[in-house]
Predict the structure.
Amino acid sequence: MGQENFHASVQYGDFKGTAAADRRDHDSISKYLENQGLVNEGEFLVGIEAYSSELMGKAQVTDVSVTALVTKYEGYDDVQAAVDSGNPLKVRKIRFDMPLVDFFSLFKRFEISISSHGMIDQRDIIFDD
């Protein structure tokens, strides 16, 4: 059993930032996990990590390494109460690879905002239209 802080991290950290996504109503990542038999009865999806390594300048469709984090707490309110307790949340990691296009198709919208070493992350910026 291990413990870690949930955040994005890569070898050099040249770019850091935030991500946001809207789940699909029917073909969501939760439904994908269920259809693949990867989640157990009563498990709740609390996090997703996606990792891709360099393509070495090759234009190709590649797989993304996905880690889904699930917990045994039932429903959003119980999970939130567990998180609010201040104790580390006990999760099970489910690791699998899938085509990048398939991964993004599990979301309605997906945005990643990264800046050099995170210097403008969560900061106001002014720009010319």
In short: The two ends are 51 Å apart (CA to CA). The mean pLDDT is 90.
